[in-house]
């Protein structure tokens, strides 16, 4: 094991160096079938049950391109403002690895289906950073290996490995950015925000499950530093398969501080792949990167070229849904939000769920308020994602409606929400079971008022004397007596009319 | 020798369909012949007597019920061991796949079964179809029934020898650089490489994907045509399969057999004669060309200058593609594994040791050559340039087909050479495919039909007919016409001049 | 053009995962040399303005419908495996890292 790497203080890194980022994102498409065969494209499953001669790389088996995967690739390319190739081919990338059944990956090399695009990324402070996209190309995923013996699941010290090819051949789109310069201190944030924006985009397109935790969205982060004032890129490292947004940010920051320490100490950065360790937030050396010529790319002879007709590309462009940034602009206008309010909503990752609540009939202001305040607190308290809370937008909308019609006070409404979160059923059921309905029966209230007035004759006297402000004490007593289920406004009205009569 | 084994597939099919003879009887006669002569010939790597007889019984039952699956129903066939079969091993002549029974049938295999063709077994071949003599088989060479000390051609020497030894009336071969036509030429049998994309490659264990094509092998042109129509046609499992009707090759063969070639223009390829061509081969070829003239064809000489670059281009393209195609043989999922049980060995070491032990020298040579030719620094000079040569060759073909309907040339420069003669000299061996390779590079159709015996050694000579892509029917017409004239001139079918084989092991 | 050296053959054999013997290195170096010399003529067209042909038949856009087709059972998939365990292919320990 290597010693813990030396790191440079982040502020000092930025005084002395400019970072250059390159991000490669692999997206598994959610097609019904794999890229080159008719096997089901599903996550998990009994090992080696979604396989056929083609995706097992058996002698004699041949690939046939999944047309829907090509459509998805073109739609992704269009959404990323890319040019779509007039003509392109698959190529073979030759290298040996046991999880790759043919010992070559069918991918695209110098002829990607989409190239020269960009994605505008919204940063936390509302600034927009344009990420230039080099290319988006089609390829296939590998199988999965399980390492047995030694430290569980780790490749080092394993006695043998077990291979499952269910994932082999799943369609992947690899999206590669151009080198990103000029991010400065915000490099880690840009990296995170880019992957986040890409995830939202892909989700809106409906082409992928974009689950970083399940590996359907994976990011490799290339980082290099150049001394301030120079423009020649430094040697880069590639941190592979970082599997959460937060990890993307941490990995970039870590590599910047590690590179800086090495460079400042007169050392050189080795071009290599690195692995990010979630628990320590650090990266470790993988292996020296094979040079490009070792892959011996050549056009895949088992597949014919793809020449997307322009009419087809136009038809696909017409299928693009409202994209995330267009939607944000529309929502901001419709809900009358300030830039700050919009940003808070986006940063809380609450835009979709609030919109769903509005769609379920709630006014935008109330819907926003519930999710970004009360429910966000609940999510934070339990350490879950907002969207993972056991309450639906429709249920929140129902609660908001009950308040609006006067059946619930705000305080009661929070109790109803607590009940739903506790699994007590629909809002109406919680109201029923917990007996939370506002006491709107005047006779019941009058009885409580009379009792309170009798108990505090001096206060009653003041009210009768015209000191209406004194009614507060009686309201408080009545609310207490009715366990908060009374409408305080109505109680006050009744007290005053009682004392006037 | 049973009379049944001397008949053509067309004759056998007609008698089986008419219930004059049963498929079981025909199949049994061929199985008996295999038992008798294959110890000497070694055409087969695997014989499935039980499976063949069961399939034959099924065909007989179907025919009894009035259902004839195809014009070849009930006729036995020898299948090259490079096409996958669910019920028999598929070894490709390699130790790497010894005993491997694929979990799926090749499309060609499936079509044969659906047509009621009886698969007798799997035939010997050069390892992974790399070779021109079948000496590169890991299971020992096949011998040429015309002279057991000579090669039967390659890589499909098992299929061609099975035909010449009357072990099967039909066979399937695969042709990457001549592996159907050259064995056909040296064994006096008919071998056809259909237009690339005409026959599905699904289940054909790839040697060089952009060149490989399966095709029919038979003793007559009509039999080859009948088999062609059984195996050809679009297959959605092969992206390079042509989605168009199969050329009407049977009708063309029948039309040609009427013996009239008037109106047909034949081009003789100027580049394919001269130094290195055996005089007897040239003489037999010239005689055949004269025969075409007599049948009414107009014969002209045509120059295809780029054809001289075909052999070198092929020896860059085929090894390059094979270096990638054969990477899958890595001891992980199927086939040979060397070093199992030695815990000290890593997967990578086991891969290297297995590939070292499992591949023969020709395969290793080509894998290394292909690895080299694809390397970044060499790609443009080698693989990239070879792809340009393909364009030049296609242009030569296109220009020629503006003048003529078909092109003709010797199939191979010499007759069958003695076993062992060229083993140590790869370049010498590669020359056997000199005349066949252009059609693979351009993807058009080509076939070899026997054109007599060479004066010097009395061994068969092959006459190659080449036609444009998807015009396979043209060459069948010419071949069928020529075949009738040849047999009429010789007073009988050439193949019946093959020496009697002793029914005993060598 | 200088042809292939013994070291180069060793490098290529490593890339191709062939544990070649010393004798083979000599044999192949010699034979590849001869082969490369005789195919060198092909390199003469490298500079020519000729489009490369990668596919013999000029087909494009061959696509498959995105419909699931039955594949192999686990037992069929593993039927030819040198070793299997728990429904998976069992292989010797893997040293390198994933790509
Ligand atoms: Mg990739
Ligand atoms: Zn599959």
From TrEMBL, chain A:
Keywords: ATP-binding, Ligase, Nucleotide-binding, Protein biosynthesis. PROSITE patterns: GATB. InterPro entries: Asn/Gln-tRNA_amidoTrfase_suB/E, Asn/Gln-tRNA_Trfase_suB/E_cat, Asn/Gln_amidotransferase, Asn/Gln_tRNA_amidoTrase-B-like, GatB, GatB_Yqey_C_2, Gln-tRNA_amidoTrfase_suB_CS, Gln_synth/guanido_kin_cat_dom. Residues 352-499 form the Asn/Gln amidotransferase domain. It catalyses: L-glutamyl-tRNA(Gln) + L-glutamine + ATP + H2O = L-glutaminyl-tRNA(Gln) + L-glutamate + ADP + phosphate + H(+); L-aspartyl-tRNA(Asn) + L-glutamine + ATP + H2O = L-asparaginyl-tRNA(Asn) + L-glutamate + ADP + phosphate + 2 H(+). It is an enzyme of class 6 (ligase). Its EC number is 6.3.5.-. Heterotrimer of A, B and C subunits. Allows the formation of correctly charged Asn-tRNA(Asn) or Gln-tRNA(Gln) through the transamidation of misacylated Asp-tRNA(Asn) or Glu-tRNA(Gln) in organisms which lack either or both of asparaginyl-tRNA or glutaminyl-tRNA synthetases. The reaction takes place in the presence of glutamine and ATP through an activated phospho-Asp-tRNA(Asn) or phospho-Glu-tRNA(Gln). PANTHER family: GLUTAMYL-TRNA GLN AMIDOTRANSFERASE SUBUNIT B MITOCHONDRIAL AND PROKARYOTIC PET112-RELATED, GLUTAMYL-TRNA(GLN) AMIDOTRANSFERASE SUBUNIT B, MITOCHONDRIAL. This is Aspartyl/glutamyl-tRNA(Asn/Gln) amidotransferase subunit B. It comes from Kutzneria albida DSM 43870. The gene is gatB.
Automatic annotation (TrEMBL), chain B:
The active site is at 80 (charge relay system), 155 (charge relay system), 179 (acyl-ester intermediate). It comes from the Bacteria. Keywords: ATP-binding, Ligase, Nucleotide-binding, Protein biosynthesis. Residues 25-474 form the Amidase domain. The keyword Ligase applies. NCBIfam families: gatA. Belongs to the amidase family. GatA subfamily. This is Glutamyl-tRNA(Gln) amidotransferase subunit A. It comes from Kutzneria viridogrisea.
UniProtKB/TrEMBL annotation, chain C:
Allows the formation of correctly charged Asn-tRNA(Asn) or Gln-tRNA(Gln) through the transamidation of misacylated Asp-tRNA(Asn) or Glu-tRNA(Gln) in organisms which lack either or both of asparaginyl-tRNA or glutaminyl-tRNA synthetases. The reaction takes place in the presence of glutamine and ATP through an activated phospho-Asp-tRNA(Asn) or phospho-Glu-tRNA(Gln). InterPro entries: Asp/Glu-ADT_sf_sub_c (IPR036113), GatC (IPR003837). Belongs to the GatC family. One of its GO terms (molecular function) is ATP binding. Its EC number is 6.3.5.-. Heterotrimer of A, B and C subunits. The keyword Kinase does not apply. The keyword DNA damage does not apply. It comes from the Bacteria. Keywords: ATP-binding, Ligase, Nucleotide-binding, Protein biosynthesis. It catalyses: L-aspartyl-tRNA(Asn) + L-glutamine + ATP + H2O = L-asparaginyl-tRNA(Asn) + L-glutamate + ADP + phosphate + 2 H(+); L-glutamyl-tRNA(Gln) + L-glutamine + ATP + H2O = L-glutaminyl-tRNA(Gln) + L-glutamate + ADP + phosphate + H(+). One of its GO terms (biological process) is regulation of translational fidelity. This is Aspartyl/glutamyl-tRNA(Asn/Gln) amidotransferase subunit C. The gene is gatC. It comes from Kutzneria albida DSM 43870. It holds the Pfam family GatC.
């Amino acid at each position: 094991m290597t010693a813990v790497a030396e790191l440079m203080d982040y502020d000092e890194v930025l005084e002395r160096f400019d970072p250059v980022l390159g991000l490669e994102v692999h997206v598994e498409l959610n097609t019904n079938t794999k890229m080159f065969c008719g096997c089901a494209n599903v996550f998990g499953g009994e090992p080696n049950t979604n396989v056929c001669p083609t995706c097992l790389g058996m002698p004699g088996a041949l690939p046939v391109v999944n047309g829907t995967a090509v459509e998805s690739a073109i739609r992704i390319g269009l959404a990323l403002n890319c040019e779509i190739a007039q003509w392109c081919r698959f190529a073979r990338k030759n290298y040996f690895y046991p999880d790759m059944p043919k010992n070559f990956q069918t991918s695209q090399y110098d002829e990607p289906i989409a190239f020269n695009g960009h994605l505008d990324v919204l940063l936390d402070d509302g600034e927009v950073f344009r990420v230039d996209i080099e290319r988006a190309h089609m390829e296939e995923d590998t199988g999965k290996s399980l390492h047995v013996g030694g430290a569980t699941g780790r490749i080092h010290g394993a006695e043998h490995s077990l291979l499952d090819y269910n994932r082999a051949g799943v369609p992947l789109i690899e999206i590669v950015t151009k080198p990103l310069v000029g991010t400065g201190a915000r490099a880690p944030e840009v990296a995170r925000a880019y992957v986040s924006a890409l995830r939202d985009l892909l989700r809106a397109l409906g082409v992928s499950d974009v689950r970083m935790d399940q590996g359907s969205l994976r990011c490799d982060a290339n980082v290099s530093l150049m001394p301030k004032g120079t423009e020649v890129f430094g040697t880069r490292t590639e941190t592979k398969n970082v599997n959460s947004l937060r990890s993307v940010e941490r990995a970039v920051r870590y590599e910047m501080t590690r590179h800086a320490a090495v460079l400042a100490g007169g050392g050189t950065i080795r071009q290599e792949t690195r692995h990010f360790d979630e628990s320590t937030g650090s990266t470790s050396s993988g292996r020296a990167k094979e040079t490009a010529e070792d892959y011996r790319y050549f056009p895949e002879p088992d597949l014919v070229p793809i020449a997307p007709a322009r009419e087809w590309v136009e038809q696909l462009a017409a299928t693009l849904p409202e994209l995330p940034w267009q939607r944000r602009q529309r929502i901001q206008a419709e809900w009358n939000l300030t830039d700050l309010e919009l940003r808070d909503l986006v940063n809380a990752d609450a835009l979709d769920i609030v919109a769903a609540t509005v769609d379920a009939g709630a006014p935008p202001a109330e819907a926003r308020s519930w999710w970004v305040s009360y429910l966000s607190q609940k999510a934070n308290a339990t350490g879950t994602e907002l969207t993972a809370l056991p309450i639906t937008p429709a249920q929140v909308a129902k609660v908001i409606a009950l308040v609006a019609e006067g059946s619930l006070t705000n305080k009661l409404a929070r109790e109803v929400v607590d009940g739903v979160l506790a699994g007590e059923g629909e809002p109406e059921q919680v109201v029923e079971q917990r007996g939370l309905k506002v006491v709107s029966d005047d006779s019941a209230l009058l009885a409580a008022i009379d009792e309170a007035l009798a108990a505090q004759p001096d206060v009653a006297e003041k009210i009768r004397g015209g000191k209406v402000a004194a009614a507060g004490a009686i309201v408080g007593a009545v609310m207490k007596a009715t366990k908060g289920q009374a409408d305080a406004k109505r109680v006050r009205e009744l007290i005053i009319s009682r004392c006037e009569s | 020798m049973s009379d049944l084994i001397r008949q053509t597939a067309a004759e056998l099919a007609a008698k089986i369909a008419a219930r004059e003879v049963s498929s079981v009887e025909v199949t049994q006669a061929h199985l008996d012949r295999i038992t008798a002569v294959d110890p000497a010939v070694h055409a087969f790597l695997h014989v499935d007597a039980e499976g063949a007889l069961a399939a034959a019984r099924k065909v007989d039952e179907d025919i009894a019920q009035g259902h004839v699956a195809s014009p070849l129903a009930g006729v036995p066939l020898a299948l090259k061991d490079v096409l996958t079969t669910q019920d028999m091993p598929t070894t490709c002549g390699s130790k790497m796949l010894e005993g491997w029974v694929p979990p799926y049938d090749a499309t060609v295999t499936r079509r044969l079964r659906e047509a009621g063709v009886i698969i007798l077994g799997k035939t010997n071949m050069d390892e992974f179809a790399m070779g021109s003599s079948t000496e590169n088989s890991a299971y020992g060479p096949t011998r040429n029934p015309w002279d057991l000390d000579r090669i039967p051609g390659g890589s499909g020497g098992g299929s061609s020898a099975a035909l010449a030894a009357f072990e099967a009336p039909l066979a399937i071969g695969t042709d990457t650089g001549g592996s159907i036509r050259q064995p056909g030429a040296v064994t006096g049998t008919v071998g056809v490489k259909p237009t690339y994309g005409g026959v599905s490659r699904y289940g054909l264990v790839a040697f060089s994907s952009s060149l490989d094509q399966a095709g029919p092998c038979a003793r007559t042109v009509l039999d080859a045509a009948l088999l062609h129509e059984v195996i050809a046609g679009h297959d959605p499992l092969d992206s390079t399969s042509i989605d168009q009707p199969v050329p009407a090759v049977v009708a063309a063969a029948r039309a040609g057999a009427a013996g009239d070639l008037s109106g047909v223009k034949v081009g003789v390829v100027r580049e394919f004669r001269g130094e290195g061509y055996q005089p007897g081969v040239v003489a037999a070829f010239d005689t055949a060309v004269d025969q075409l003239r007599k049948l009414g064809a107009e014969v002209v000489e045509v120059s295809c200058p780029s054809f001289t670059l075909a052999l070198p281009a092929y020896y860059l393209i085929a090894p390059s593609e094979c270096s990638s195609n054969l990477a899958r043989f890595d001891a992980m999922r199927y086939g040979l594994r060397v070093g199992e049980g030695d815990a000290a060995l890593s997967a990578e070491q086991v891969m290297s040791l297995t590939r070292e032990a499992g591949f023969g020298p020709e395969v290793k040579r080509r894998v290394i050559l292909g690895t080299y030719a694809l390397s970044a620094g060499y790609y443009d000079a080698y693989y990239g340039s070879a792809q340009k040569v393909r364009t030049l060759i296609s242009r030569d073909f296109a220009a020629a087909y503006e003048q003529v309907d078909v092109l003709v040339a010797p199939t191979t420069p010499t007759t069958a050479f003695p076993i062992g003669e060229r083993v140590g000299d790869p370049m010498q061996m590669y020359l056997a495919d000199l005349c066949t390779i252009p059609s693979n590079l351009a993807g058009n159709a080509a076939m070899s039909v026997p054109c007599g015996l060479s004066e010097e050694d009395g061994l068969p000579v092959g006459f190659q007919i080449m036609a444009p892509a998807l015009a396979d029917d043209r060459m069948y017409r010419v071949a069928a016409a020529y075949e009738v004239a040849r047999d009429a001139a010789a007073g009988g079918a050439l193949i019946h001049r093959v020496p009697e084989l002793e029914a005993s092991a060598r | 053009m200088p042809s292939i050296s013994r070291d180069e053959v060793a490098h290529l054999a490593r890339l191709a995962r062939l544990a070649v013997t010393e004798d083979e290195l000599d044999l192949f170096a010699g034979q590849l040399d001869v082969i490369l010399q005789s195919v060198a003529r092909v390199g003469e067209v490298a500079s020519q303005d000729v489009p490369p042909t990668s596919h013999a038949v000029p087909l494009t856009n061959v696509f498959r419908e995105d419909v699931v087709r039955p594949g192999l059972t686990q037992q069929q998939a593993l039927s030819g495996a040198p070793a299997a365990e728990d429904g998976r292919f069992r292989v010797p320990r893997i040293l390198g890292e994933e790509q």
